[in-house]
Amino acid sequence: MKNTLENISVKGFRRLQNIDLEMRDIIVMIGANGSGKTSFLDVLSILAASASGNLHHILQLKGGLNQILTRGKAQELEIAVSMQIPERQPLNYSLTLSPKDLSYEVKDENLTQQRNPNRPEPFKYIESQGLDIKYSQEGIGLVRPNWDHNPLETSLSQVPKTYREPENLRKSLASCTYYGALDVSEKSPIRLPQTMRPAKLPGARGEDLISCLYDLRESDLDRFEWVENIISAAFPDFERLNFPPVAAGTLSMTWTDRNFDHPIYVHELSEGTLRFLWLVTLLQSQNLTTITLLDEPEVSLHPELLRHLVYLMREASKHTQLIVATHSDRLIGFLEPHEVLICDIEGGETKMTWADTFNLSKWLEDYSLDQVWAMNIMGGRP
């Protein structure tokens, strides 16, 4: 069993004025532009940064806390998550950020867990209000830290590594990884020769795609052949991948097509082919982080490739909690209602509704899910 977010609530973040959402292993968000899909990914990125000690940095990049609060309707940002822990009760974490002068303060922060079923009060690992910081110490109770504590970073990010449960949550949240639209322009990293080194993921920019596939071939041939089989199913004329050396310790990659006498080098592949190859490599990896954020993976892909993409997403969700934002109704057509989250705007606020909460059974007897969505039966349309 993997660590999994069971629930998240967000108050005061852009259009996410008041969201309380059940989380699932695979979440594919669809809705009109400005309906909150990217904001939801941003909230999780901020949560990850706060767990890794980079809260101040990410808020600076976004122009400060005031720039991301719901305009005219929120004075602070509140995020709360519940994370499933194997063989234990969930960990419940909450964080409240409030503007202070030209900066911000961590107003409230709590980490609790129901450890004793005979006691209604949960066990407290962290209890912080402003500068009053307290951590649990076994056998003693809540104590103030005896080390320098940075007030602009969360207490969770500064928890002692010996505190197993809080560190478990911190590492899970901090590992959340965002993958946006892949740059496949002429001089992009994915098209260039790459240094031969162990790599288990292809990189957010594809900078380790060649290294990752070469490493997979050398370390797990069965899985590498599985990747090639997926590519063959999507591109029937594909035969194999090869990795010719370019210089000492540097590799390129070639794609052998049965229609051509000579292999195609990676820099010659089409945008859609290259993006699909990157997605296959990413989603097949056994080393995906606890939470993986994927923004518009359908870009440049032929509609016929979306069936394979959905298969890969489901495989990936066995190892990571996969959260996807899409504008593709064709992609939705290959999904099940329990995998689709409808994002809509009501009264200027984002509303998020799982597609399986609608009564769709009769509609799905005659129509595919993307057709039902196109008919505006579930909302989420412009």
Give the CA-based shape: globular
Share of helical residues? 25-40%
Physical arrangement of strands within the biggest beta sheet: 2-1-4-5-6-7-8-9
Classification by helices and strands = alpha+beta
Write the H/E string, N to C: EEEHHEEEEEEHEEHHEEEEEHEHEHEEHH
Please specify the SSE layout and strand pairing.
Elements: E1 4-13, E2 16-22, E3 26-31, H1 37-51, H2 55-61, E4 77-85, E5 88-100, E6 103-113, E7 123-129, E8 132-137, E9 141-143, H3 164-174, E10 177-179, E11 194-195, H4 209-219, H5 221-234, E12 238-242, E13 245-247, E14 250-251, E15 254-257, E16 264-265, H6 271-284, E17 291-295, H7 306-316, E18 321-326, H8 329-332, E19 340-346, E20 349-354, H9 361-366, H10 369-374
Parallel strand pairs: 3-18, 3-19, 10-17, 17-18
Antiparallel strand pairs: 1-2, 1-4, 4-5, 5-6, 6-7, 7-8, 8-9, 11-14, 12-15, 13-14, 15-16, 19-20
Helix pairs in contact: 1-2, 1-3, 4-5, 5-6, 6-7
Please describe what this structure looks like.
The protein has 382 residues and is of the alpha+beta class. Helix content is 26%, strand content 31%. The chain is built from ten helices and 20 strands. An eight-stranded antiparallel β-sheet has the order 2-1-4-5-6-7-8-9. Strand 15 (254-257) and strand 16 (264-265) form a beta hairpin.
Concise overview:
Helix content is 26%, strand content 31%.
Key structural traits:
382 residues; six-stranded mixed β-sheet; 10 helices; 31% strand; 20 strands; alpha+beta; eight-stranded antiparallel β-sheet
